[in-house]
Prior knowledge:
CATH superfamily of the largest domain: Spore Coat Polysaccharide Biosynthesis Protein SpsA, Chain A
CATH class of the largest domain: Alpha Beta
Largest sheet: 11 strands, parallel
Amino acid sequence: xxxxxxxxxxxxxxxxxxxxxxxxxxxxxxxxxxxxxxxxxxxxxxxxxxxxxxxxxxxxxxxxxxxxxxxxxxxxxxxxxxxxxxxxxxxxxxxxxxxxxxxxxxxxxxxxxxxxxxxxxxxxxxxxxxxxxxxxxxxxxxxxxxxxxxxxxxxxxxxxxxxxxxxxxxxxxxxxxxxxxxxxxxxxxxxxxxxxxxxxxxxxxxxxxxxxxxxxxxxxxxxxxxxxxxxxxxxxxxxxxxxxxxxxxxxxxxxxxxxxxxxxxxxxxxxxxxxxxxxxxxxxxxxxxxxxxxxxxxxxxxxxxxxxxxxxxxxxxxxxxxxxxxxxxxxxxxxxxxxxxxxxxxxxxxxxxxxxxxxxxxxxxxxxxxxxxxxxxxxxxxxxxxxxxxxxxxxxxxxxxxxxxxxxxxxxxxxxxxxxxxxxxxxxxxxxxxxxxxxxxxxxxxxxxxxxxxxxxxxxxxx
Length: 463
């Protein structure tokens, strides 16, 4: 059984904020952090708790938000037609919470939130039998957060929002994360009692705390071990900040798994990337999307690898770009090579400098070493493709296929006009333009013009 299993837990994710300070047509929670939207980060950690349901409360751009996550996360949509505060937002989810014992409330713009932190909150909530539990943190610069006000006995009395805090209350360094776990029955009882007597004229979720205490309820503030988990994002600067923190976490985790990362501050590794042991990632590399790297690979410097699969012992030299490619073991790519989507390279293939390969399959130990374009091609094993070779796959309207057998040698500066087949064992002379089938095992070359010499010819000079 999942160690984080809570069968009577309903989660409410608050994602209704407009995010005006992002200055973007994209809803705030859909802005990406290391290859995933902030909301997807949050939902992924929540799903690890195996709750009975996840309600997504949306407002601004709600349909866009829901559409972005519905295919990858199982959520129910709750609309907050008027943005009247966090308490009002949770009230909209009452119907979907009816069968729960406890309700976990999180914000959709907290991509650093870890499942272990949520587990800490839920465990404390259950063990203490509290009516309300929430995550808090002690930080050096509490500006912008609701302050946790405790009495002399250390008991939580209230949470004071920044806008409504007095000068003394603003000196408090313990702050609320905005992440709550509340007994369902008590939650909606308290929410019906809160008012909007504050500067923003909004219904604040934290106002349930003094109501609970006034009725003799138990309120627990659970101090999180990593304060950065609660960081929310309201503008582009904060987005960059949480990205930097998450990147450090990702890099630290891979180093513990046996990956060497040269100059980590220059490297980007998305959260969905997988990397094998004894792989070295050099300065400036970007590993993006669903990329998977095998054991013992050498990457970079300044290679970009996106949505690609690399088997073991692959060497990607400097400034190469791979997108949607599959590369077999012991292959060598670059420098300055480009592998485009649907490229499949078998074991030991070599792709050299300034070579582009697109939607092609290259067999074991074949080589395309210099300044060539290979597109829409099926190539066999142990082929050698000379510098400047082009498979001319496009006739201006349609793409056509080039088929090359095993043990083929193509001379430099050859043009293969697709559709065309070069049979196994064939050799094509340099500078040829091939428009018909090349038969196996012989030498084929197109007719070359006679070489001429013009005595005393002068180059043109600038006037």
